[in-house]
Design goal:
six-stranded mixed sheet, 2 domains, D-Maltodextrin-Binding Protein, domain 2, 330 residues, single chain, alpha/beta, globular, 45% helix
Length: 330
Amino acid sequence: MNVRSLPHKLLLPWLVAGTAWLCAAHAFAADPFPSKPVKILVGFSPGGSNDVVARLIAPKLAEGLGAQVLVDNRPGAGGNIAVSAMLTAPADGHTLLMCTTGTLSIQPHVLKSMPFDPEKDIVPVTQVTNAPYMLMVNSTLPVTSVKELVAYAKQKPGELNFASSGTATGGHLAGEMLKTRAGIDIVHVAYKGTGQAMTDLLAGQVSMIFDQPVSSMQYARSGKLRALAVASSRRLAAFPDIPTVTEAGIPDFEPVTWAGICAARNTPPAVVERIQREVARVLATPEIAKRLAADGLEPVGSTPEQFRAFLAADKRKWGRVVKDADVKAE
């Protein structure tokens, strides 16, 4: 039958049916996102700052995406175990990574060979938070300021130690910066996450830690830890009584860290943009913004392009820190 020869009244149903079939076929081929629960991989143990932030935004993100959002902790290897888990999953946006300063900005300068290419294998989605580290000490340590800590460490070289969530993480390098710039001999103790490090710090097994306020200030407020200083150019609005390290006489001490959402290579651009929009929306809600600010964190919500540019600059910055501290992979 020649369709062109049909009257317009008979041709119309054919056109409608054909259009509907094409739309249905396109929708089927597009694999709508999300079609199942979305997983955010955190490369450190529960209780750390990145874990706390991920669990804070997950419920609101789930509301916007219309799908369950799960937080899955994969600690170890400075976050690289979580990276590997994301890269072996389908690149469809359902498996995301809570990417961090240590994993993407520091480790490329420390490891002889990376198990992945940070620039080719990782897709920046959005920077979630920006935050300076806080210098915390066990409350039994007889110091109440950075100056007193430095003096105490010089009296007892090699006896004090500091914890971090892993080798070549931002907290580790912050401690190395203090060590070299203050001229003190303190020993680094690496853990598989901030939660484990905090447990030993509270028990007095380690002396101090550079950590984000979100995972440690509760202990300072309860008196179990003592906050000596914030590693920033200015005091935090949420903690105005805590001085900066610079105020203690160590200039330009600003090892600011960050957390973001990343996806695997080949993730569809439309999916990346959708996730970025939803995360930015969550960060802009008064409830979340207020909670982050109270914990000393700055919400960001940048675009993928902005985040990529930020990563390039941040990688250069930490490269200089690694060189100055002469940090080597263990």
